[in-house]
Amino acid sequence: MEKNFTYIVECSDHTLYTGWTNDLEKRITAHNEGKGAKYTKTRRPVRLVYFETFATKEEAMSREYRIKRLSRRKKQQLIAGIQDMTGKI
Question: How does pLDDT run across 14-54, given as a tens digit for each residue?
Fold first, then answer.
């Protein structure tokens, strides 16, 4: 079974970048080699601060979309493991 990941990295300028991949280690290495996303290319090094695992690419991409729509504060709460009153972020 292939694993798919939604992840958040913290860039050297302390901004957060969210993405998805099916090979997390390779993707983080690519970001740090300047071969990842355009956004992270000039903000290296990046540090993996959060990830979730999914069975399908579609699930990972859907979660990436939802996380990208969160405020920075909500992303920081997600990273810290803090959930809102409904148990969701």
Answer: 999 999 999 999 999 999 999 989 999 999 999 999 999 99
Distance separating alpha carbons of residues 43 and 46, to the nearest angstrom: 7
Cβ(12)–Cβ(61) below 8 Å: no
Q: At 20, list the tokens.
A: 């998805």
DSSP three-state, residue 59: helix
Asked whether the whole model's pTM tops 0.70, one would answer: yes
| The token pair that represents 22 in the structure block | 């099916």
Handedness of CA 21, 69, 15, 78 (dihedral sign): negative
Q: Are strands 4-10 and 47-54 parallel, antiparallel or unpaired?
A: antiparallel
